[in-house]
Design brief:
The chain has about 270 residues and is α/β, with parallel strands linked by helices. It contains seven helices and ten strands. It has one domain: Rossmann fold (3-Layer(aba) Sandwich), CATH 3.40.50.1580. Helices cover about 35% and strands about 25% of the residues. Strands 5-9-8-6-10 form a five-stranded mixed barrel, surrounded by four helices. A hairpin with a 6-residue loop joins strand 2 and strand 3.
Amino acid sequence: MRAALEPRILILCPLAREWSFLVSTFEASLHVEHLHDLKIDAAYIPDWHALVTPGGHGKTQFAVQAQYLIGQFPSVELVICAGAAGSLAPELSVGDVVVGTETVEHDYRQLFATRPLPRFPGHGPSIDSLRSSPHRVSGFHVAFDVIASGDEDVVTSERAQAIRGQTGALCVAWEGSGAARAALFNGTGSLEIRAVTDAADKEAPARFEANLPIAMANLASLLRLWFGEGVRLLNGKKPRLNWGFRRYSGIKTRFHCLSAINDLPV
């Protein structure tokens, strides 16, 4: 079975609970095949040529699992980090979804030299495609803005305000920069999409647990609308970049990011 799969989209959810909510929502209206021969639980959606898996908690684990899956499936053209987030702005409500125009790594602290925080642009063609979807969703708002990424539970208003001031981000989560780094290293597009569960304050732990089903249902709704539109454009033919994404070809940008930010070879 796996040898015949050629997923073009990887949708990785940081937590197993997030993945379970997302897959369960998809199963209500889509044909979903569960794979059992990978190191990670995975569900494949043939209509979308999409593989949905847990990505792991934290930037490093997420990047490791993303790299593993990209290595297993060279057909992948877009990596999506999809999960929950804490709001950094009062205009966001529980269940609202933020599409990351940029992911900024707020906990990357260099003291030997002064450099801007690492920033990873979201996949432009995918963002453009998604901008046509918000007017068709109901019950929640879709925003397009910066998402802050760092291995830290933000549970005070003071810390939330500090990250907002430092990054200009609309919401904060953990793993987005890990996904972006793995994708960039492989010349693959990446996009972070987060649904709000809490206000990144002292109530965040309880609100995260209570609101996770709502947040993931809304995130699933947006993805279903986006990819469902792409499927309708196929007219029974093999997909040819109908969702607007393609292999990353910004060689100069890729060289700059990897050498200036990571000091990695290219």
